Amino acid sequence: MSAWAAGLSNAPGIRVKAVVRRTHIVRHSEEEKALALAGLFQAAAMVQQVARTGEVNQEAYNPLISSVFNLDPKSVEDVYQGVSGVKLGVDTLLLVLREKESARYADAIRYTIGMLHIEKLLKRDADINSVLRSRLEQVTNQLQHFDGMTSPAVISKLNDIYLDTLAKFKFRIQVNGDPSHLQKPENAAQIRAILLAGVRSAMLWRQMGGSRLQFAFGKSKLISILQKLQQEITFT
């Protein structure tokens, strides 16, 4: 098992069957799996947003960036600072699964597949995984010196980490969008930071037992779980 993955699976409180929240809600494995998948789709949707508009949804952006530094979470939900942290991902995933706006999120779907592939490559490369976790730990220990997790300085560091690790694989995710936005260094850095968070979510989803085959044949069940989570977020 890779170093980054080991940091997650060995975390205190992580259980495959159920996790008890502070509010005493039992979060079963299928719900945790759905949360991780929503985190992945949220990252993909945000990459699409930055590439096309040059803007980010801060309510969705903050939990994603925070998830990168939560190396030893107590639960899947804890990774995203609560269920509401993946609201955009839950909403987007539901739209895609219901095939209501699949065309609108065509790029996001492609980014999702790309991040899943990078996660698979990362799992097989212990050296890059070790470097990745080490670099993230270094930045995590320095966070108190920066003006928030999404400050330009922190995003710049995540950009560098991405270039020094995940960008070393031959497979690259081709991001489509408005050239005027993609050519701005700050936007490129945000996109790489979001992709890093997306790969984290992909790894978490795999750890919880997620698979493409299961995704393809468990569509109706996943929709039901996501609807439940969406309702929970609405009343949070």
What does this structure look like?
The protein contains twelve helices and two strands, in the order αββααααααααααα. The chain is mainly α. It has a single domain (3-234), classed as HflD-like (YcfC-like). The protein has a two-stranded antiparallel sheet. Helix 2 packs across helix 6 and helix 8 (152-164) crosses helix 10 (185-207). Residues 5-24 have low confidence and may be disordered.
Write a short abstract of this structure.
The protein has 236 residues and is an all-alpha fold.
Helix content: 55-70%
What's the gyration radius in Å? 17 Å
Amount of beta strand:
under 5%
Give the second-level CATH assignment, the architecture.
Orthogonal Bundle
Superfamily (CATH H level) name: HflD-like
What's the number of extended β-strand segments?
2
H-E string: HEEHHHHHHHHHHH
What structural category arises from helix and sheet content? mainly alpha
> Rough shape?
globular
Which runs of at least 5 residues are low in confidence (pLDDT < 50)? Answer: 5-24
CATH class: Mainly Alpha
- The termini sit apart by 36 Å
- Provide the number of structural domains: 1
Brief descriptors of the model:
single chain, 67% helix, 236 residues, two-stranded antiparallel ribbon, YcfC-like, mainly alpha
What is the strand and helix layout of this fold?
Elements: H1 3-9, E1 18-20, E2 26-28, H2 29-53, H3 58-69, H4 76-79, H5 87-97, H6 106-124, H7 126-142, H8 152-164, H9 179-182, H10 185-207, H11 212-217, H12 219-234
Antiparallel strand pairs: 1-2
